């Protein structure tokens, strides 16, 4: 069975905001873990509406690239994708924001991973 990853971003009229979601998609594509990696946006193009129709794979993992749960992730995106009526094999995932990996990114950006390494076994951090 072929599988796809669909990253859903908020979208913005500012191109840099959309580019972040596209960047993640490109990085994941390079790993070759999915037959397809596509993006869509709540506000912007390509739109969430019709996104599942654009995906050709049998199974689809939908990952909202949002910092938290909210109206978009709990109502708008599932409705726009037609998740209640689709017969496709779709796995709708939690937004990425509450994942432990995001905590590590925050600590790294704050320059704390290096200091925490000795206490909790974390490695890495900004180069100084």
Write a short abstract of this structure:
It contains 5 helices and 4 strands, in the order E-H-E-H-E-H-E-H-H. It is an alpha/beta fold and 128 residues long.
Task: Jot down its keywords.
disordered C terminus, alpha/beta, 4-stranded parallel beta sheet, globular, 128 residues, 5 helices
| Relative helix content | 25-40%
Give the C-alpha Rg: 17 Å
First-residue to last-residue Cα separation: 47 Å
What is the beta-strand fraction? 15-25%
In terms of per-residue confidence, which ranges show pLDDT below 50 for 5 or more consecutive residues? 115-128
Instruction: Please describe the biggest sheet, giving its number of strands, its sense, and whether it closes into a barrel.
Output: 4 strands, parallel
Based on DSSP secondary structure assignment, what is the total number of beta strands? 4
Strand order of the largest sheet: 2-1-3-4
Overall mean pLDDT stands at: 88
Shape: globular
Provide a count of the helices: 5
Report the order of strands and helices: EHEHEHEHH
Structural class: alpha/beta
Task: Describe the protein in words.
With about 130 residues, this protein is of the alpha/beta class. The protein is built from five helices and four strands; from the N terminus they run E-H-E-H-E-H-E-H-H. It has a four-stranded parallel β-sheet with strand order 2-1-3-4, sandwiched between helices. Strand 3 (about 60-65), helix 3 (about 70-80) and strand 4 form a beta-alpha-beta unit. The protein is globular and about 45 Å long.
């Amino acid at each position: 069975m072929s599988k796809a990853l669909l990253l859903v971003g908020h979208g913005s009229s500012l191109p840099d905001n959309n580019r972040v979601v596209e960047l993640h998609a490109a990085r994941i594509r390079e790993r070759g873990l999915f037959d397809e990696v596509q993006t869509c946006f709540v506000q912007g193009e390509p739109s969430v509406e019709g996104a599942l129709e654009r995906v050709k794979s049998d199974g689809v993992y939908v990952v909202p690239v949002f910092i938290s749960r909210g109206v978009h992730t709990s109502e708008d995106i599932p409705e726009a994708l037609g998740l209640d009526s689709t017969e496709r094999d779709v796995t709708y995932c939690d937004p990425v924001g509450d994942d432990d990996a995001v905590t590590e990114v925050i600590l790294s950006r704050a320059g704390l991973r290096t200091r925490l390494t000795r206490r909790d076994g974390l490695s890495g951090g900004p180069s100084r």
